[in-house]
């Protein structure tokens, strides 16, 4: 795609790091910067400091800012490797400690990690490296888009995704991705799948590798942790959507050998879930519940949703929907591989889950699926975006699907200015503009749209995708980034939203909506591709 005149929005919070697309990254010592509101970067990893690119505090008038090279007025910068940033032009560096080093020579400044510092890079071919970084965009698809705003956001999404890619390392022997190079840094299960969905449009091999990387961290008992890194892993899992991710890559470029390779590992993980997440043996699974009041269920991905406020075990609408879709997808894979017995087994699992969801999780009065308290056997009454996810696996009857669509279109419930809020609007006592307590998440909108398409509502799906990408584009134009979540009421800009109880970025990056967030960008790519095909 053409890059001239794009990536020209400065904005706060844009991440800057060396990509595994270009060479070796370094999880522990790699240099990561984050743009400030003025013409400056904060150095955030591995040491702290500030890089000022102009003596004037306002935002630059002219800029080009990708994930690994920039030009601001008369100053240019590029990362020749994962440990260094080479700048030509105005640059003033303030370091907080000796983790980083700097070198000045004429109009050039080199910043690098102290133990890997290479003074010779001050004379590197900045012109050539800068041109190569820009040339990376040339073969990327623009899907026939002509709207300049959409093209600008698409360029940003590609750039952001490139910056999330890490190279193989001894602990993770495949290219792998992260939601953001700071502060998350690690590899996450369902994030990696959503990243692969974006990657499949322009780098199928890294898309496949990003799923191989997750599967490489499978534990001996079959469990796959929700968070993994070269330094270890978590003790919980995350939404099972790996087979779905494989199917999406297969849709772009069928490769039976890839399916054959990953099939047994995904199968073992699903069997682990059935064995370890169904405490009452009723055929439906439950997320692990934590004691942390601002993250009752990190395993679900919906950390602080009001669904989990009671801190009890729940037969969960989303968990069972994901699991049912995985079973259906595994049945299709088994059939393709000539494994008829396994195909029948996974078909049966899929049918059983759908039947149990309709028996135990459907609320006829409310016209939506709800979680069920395992202890009392009653539905919780919390109406949430998760209640639409059975659309994904084909669980609803035509009558149930119509009731779900009616809920989506009800202004008192889910037809907020930006759909789909994470909880229903008619639950004001539980609502907050904090994470999963009301705001909209791009991945859930994406999945609900897929479910609508599957269940016979293509125009509803298109309207949901149109509204989602329009809001992402609106805030990209304003801030130059893709955010972690968005206000369903459109009353607050994303940086004003709460995260884990407060909006206090001065205290911690975990107390403000994350900028340059992974799946918000990667799924934007896929949504634009879908909308372009349908136009």
Question: Would you kindly provide a written description of the structure presented here, covering whatever features stand out?
Answer:
It is a single chain. The chain has 535 residues and is α+β, with helices and mostly antiparallel strands. The chain folds into 2 domains: 15-135, no CATH class; 148-534, Glycosyltransferase. It is 35% helix and 13% strand. It is built from 12 helices and 20 strands. It has helices at residues 126-135, 148-163, 189-199, 204-215, 242-252, 256-276, 317-336, 340-360, 398-408, 442-454, 458-479, 518-534; strands at residues 15-17, 32-35, 40-45, 49-52, 63-65, 69-72, 75-81, 84-88, 92-95, 100-105, 108-113, 165-166, 176-177, 187-188, 227-229, 232-233, 314-315, 362-363, 368-369, 372-373. The chain has a 6-stranded antiparallel beta sheet, with helices on one face. It has a 5-stranded antiparallel beta sheet with strand order 1-2-3-4-9, with no helix packed on it. A 3-stranded antiparallel beta sheet has the order 14-15-16. A hairpin with a 2-residue loop joins strand 10 (100-105) and strand 11 (108-113). It starts with 14 loop residues before the first strand and ends with a helix.
């Amino acid at each position: 795609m053409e890059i001239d005149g794009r990536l020209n929005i400065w904005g706060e919070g844009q991440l800057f790091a060396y990509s595994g697309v270009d060479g070796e990254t370094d999880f522990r010592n790699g240099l990561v910067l984050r743009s400030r509101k003025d013409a400056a970067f904060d150095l955030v990893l591995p040491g702290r400091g500030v890089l000022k690119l102009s003596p004037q505090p306002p935002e630059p008038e002219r800029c080009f800012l990708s994930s690994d090279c920039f030009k601001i007025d008369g100053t240019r910068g590029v990362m020749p490797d994962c440990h260094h940033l080479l700048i030509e032009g105005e640059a003033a560096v303030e370091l907080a400690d000796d983790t980083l080093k700097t070198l000045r020579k004429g109009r050039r400044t080199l910043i690098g990690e102290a133990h890997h510092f290479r003074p010779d890079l001050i004379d590197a071919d900045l012109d050539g490296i800068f041109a190569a970084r820009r040339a990376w965009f040339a073969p990327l698809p623009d899907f026939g888009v002509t709207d300049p705003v959409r093209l600008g956001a698409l360029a940003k999404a590609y750039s952001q995704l490139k910056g999330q890619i890490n190279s193989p390392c001894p602990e993770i022997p495949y290219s792998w991705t992260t939601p953001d190079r700071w502060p998350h840094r690690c590899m996450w299960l369902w994030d990696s799948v959503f990243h692969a969905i974006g990657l499949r449009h322009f780098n199928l091999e890294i898309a496949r590798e990003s799923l191989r990387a997750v599967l490489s961290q499978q534990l001996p008992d079959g469990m796959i942790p929700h968070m993994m890194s070269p330094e270890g892993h978590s003790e919980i899992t995350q939404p099972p959507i790996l087979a779905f991710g494989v199917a999406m890559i297969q849709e772009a470029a069928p490769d039976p050998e890839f399916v054959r390779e990953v099939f047994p590992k995904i199968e073992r993980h699903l069997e682990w879930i059935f064995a370890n997440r169904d405490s009452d043996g009723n055929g439906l699974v439950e997320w692990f519940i934590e004691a942390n009041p601002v993250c009752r269920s990190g395993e679900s991905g919906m950390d602080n949703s009001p669904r989990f406020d009671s801190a009890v075990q729940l037969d969960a609408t989303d968990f069972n929907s994901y699991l049912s879709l995985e079973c259906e997808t595994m049945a299709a894979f088994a059939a393709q591989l000539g494994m008829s017995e396994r195909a029948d087994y996974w078909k049966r699992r899929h049918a059983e889950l759908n039947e149990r969801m309709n028996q135990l999780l459907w609320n006829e009065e409310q016209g939506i699926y709800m979680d069920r308290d395992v202890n009392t056997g009653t539905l919780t009454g919390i109406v949430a975006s998760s209640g639409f996810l059975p659309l994904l696996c084909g669980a609803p009857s035509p009558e149930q699907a119509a009731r779900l669509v009616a809920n989506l279109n009800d202004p008192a419930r889910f037809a907020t200015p930006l759909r789909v809020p994470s909880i229903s609007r008619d639950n004001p006592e539980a609502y907050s503009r904090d994470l999963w307590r009301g705001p909209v998440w791009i991945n859930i909108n994406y999945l609900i749209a897929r479910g609508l398409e599957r269940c016979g509502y293509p125009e509803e799906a298109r309207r949901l995708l149109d509204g989602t990408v329009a809001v992402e584009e609106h805030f990209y134009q304003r801030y130059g980034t893709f955010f972690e979540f968005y206000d369903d009421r459109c009353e607050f800009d994303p940086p004003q939203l709460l995260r884990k109880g407060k909006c206090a970025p001065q205290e911690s990056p975990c107390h403000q909506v994350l900028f340059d967030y992974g799946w918000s960008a990667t799924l934007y790519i896929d949504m634009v591709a879908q909308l372009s095909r349908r136009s």
